[in-house]
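Lecture notes, part 5. Sequence design as translation. It can be helpful to think of inverse folding as translation between two languages: the language of shapes and the language of residues. The source text, in structure tokens, appears below.
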């Protein structure tokens, strides 16, 4: 008779999985601390390196390199197994942190950010594949809940710790202080990686054109993201060119039918990008509006973002306990909650609005993200043949990145074009109204695809 697992052993902390769970949470926590800390330290970094004109490039370079690493890491996971790319990515990420910590100038720092980006993209997609191999399908929602929970402490304390290090020690500790801990995470993950990270028994062979498409996607992401941070016709033209480069690349990098919202895998990949794009586009202008229209201090204006992170964690944990609902329904619910959050912004952010509403509405929107983002990951892994898990997980991450880059960039164009000297944030209200309409429309699209999915 087979042994019956006790509830305490049946999910994340079963003896065969606890080391992997601990390593997963530690590594994602460190990646999150680095992501939260860089933004805080960046003004000091560019000032000390005398590179203010390069302000956005450490972020842009990391994003583009992440797109490249995600695709290449997914390809390696499908052909050689997830162990090799993960075990290369972890020390490489640590090396990138060390290079950044000792960078004497901006070019060296950008090289370090490229190393971190490629390693980080490879790391995330490899962990997605390993989650499918380490945890039984019924426990994967809990694994993604734990992954989301790993962002809580960095969201709460990452900017503060990075600020204190930058002010009282050096910004270099924001990078260098994490490198030994990344290696500790690698040690925790090694046993499970060796046990579960072998190549799939059956492979579909390398997909033609994915490597050139990966480089095209990285170039397109860089162009779109760079354009989104500038208000000029040449920048916007470059952004349009980036989108033109991206479209044929996406046809190679996404499951067939993604751009047509076909049921199954395609709608989950598309939904991930739309959900991330809607949420982060609205969030991008929350601190600006609170500062300009309501006189909040920069520190206070960032608090709603932390509140949203807490909601995200709650939503991710809630979805881990929902087994009777189809994942399309949960993703649609995520869109609805993000839409409700945008509705709250309509009444909170304008000068005539009730500013404190932003804290409640962004908690609701963050909860929707926790439900929706985790559910797309669970659905994609459940519907992916073993030989395609890397490719499909990479597609999910690429969709996430592009959704943010394209929609945040478009939102920046709207806000900039409607801004006036008297009201620099006049465009935020029309933007939030547009997002409020788009969210339920996307929810309806996901639900329709779910009803068309064969049962």
């Amino acid at each position: 008779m087979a042994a019956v697992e006790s509830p305490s052993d049946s999910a994340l902390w079963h003896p065969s999985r606890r080391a992997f769970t601990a390593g997963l949470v530690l590594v994602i926590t460190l990646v999150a601390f680095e992501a939260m800390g860089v933004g805080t330290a960046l003004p000091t970094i560019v000032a000390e390196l005398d590179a203010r004109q390069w302000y956005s490039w450490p972020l842009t370079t990391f994003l583009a390199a992440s797109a490249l690493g995600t695709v290449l890491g997914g390809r390696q996971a499908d052909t050689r197994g997830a162990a090799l790319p993960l075990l290369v990515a972890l020390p490489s990420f640590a090396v990138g942190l060390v290079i950044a910590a000792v960078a004497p100038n901006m070019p060296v720092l950008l090289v370090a950010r490229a190393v971190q980006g490629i390693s980080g993209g490879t790391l995330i997609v490899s962990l997605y594949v390993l989650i499918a191999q380490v945890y039984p399908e019924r426990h994967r929602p809990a694994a993604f809940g734990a992954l989301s929970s790993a962002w809580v402490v960095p969201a709460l304390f990452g900017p503060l710790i990075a600020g204190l290090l930058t002010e009282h020690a050096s910004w270099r500790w924001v990078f260098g202080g994490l490198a030994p801990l990344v290696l500790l995470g690698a040690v925790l993950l090694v046993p499970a990686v060796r046990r579960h990270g072998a190549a799939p028994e059956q492979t579909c062979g390398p997909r033609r054109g994915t490597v050139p498409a990966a480089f095209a996607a990285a170039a397109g992401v860089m162009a779109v993201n760079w354009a989104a941070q500038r208000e000029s016709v040449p920048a916007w033209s470059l952004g349009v060119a980036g989108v033109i480069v991206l479209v044929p690349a996406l046809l190679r990098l996404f499951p067939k039918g993604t751009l047509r919202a076909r049921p199954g895998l395609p709608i989950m990949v598309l939904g991930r990008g739309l959900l991330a794009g809607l949420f982060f586009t609205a969030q991008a202008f929350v601190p600006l509006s609170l500062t300009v229209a309501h006189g909040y201090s920069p520190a206070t204006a960032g608090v709603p973002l932390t509140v949203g992170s807490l909601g995200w964690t709650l939503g991710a944990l809630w979805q881990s306990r929902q087994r009777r609902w189809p994942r399309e329904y949960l993703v649609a619910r995520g869109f609805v909650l993000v839409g409700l959050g945008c509705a709250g912004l309509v009444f909170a952010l304008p000068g005539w609005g009730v500013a404190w509403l932003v804290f409640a509405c962004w908690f609701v929107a963050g909860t929707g993200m926790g439900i929706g983002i985790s559910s797309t990951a669970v659905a994609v892994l459940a519907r992916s043949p073993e030989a395609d898990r890397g490719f499909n997980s990479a597609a999910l991450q690429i969709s996430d990145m592009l959704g943010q880059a394209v929609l945040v960039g478009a939102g920046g164009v709207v806000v900039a074009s409607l801004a006036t000297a008297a009201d620099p944030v006049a465009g935020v209200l029309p933007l939030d109204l547009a997002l409020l309409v788009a969210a339920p429309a996307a929810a309806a699209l996901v639900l329709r695809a779910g009803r068309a999915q064969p049962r």
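The translated text above is only one of many valid answers, since several sequences can fold into similar shapes. Confidence is low (pLDDT under 50) at residues 1-8.
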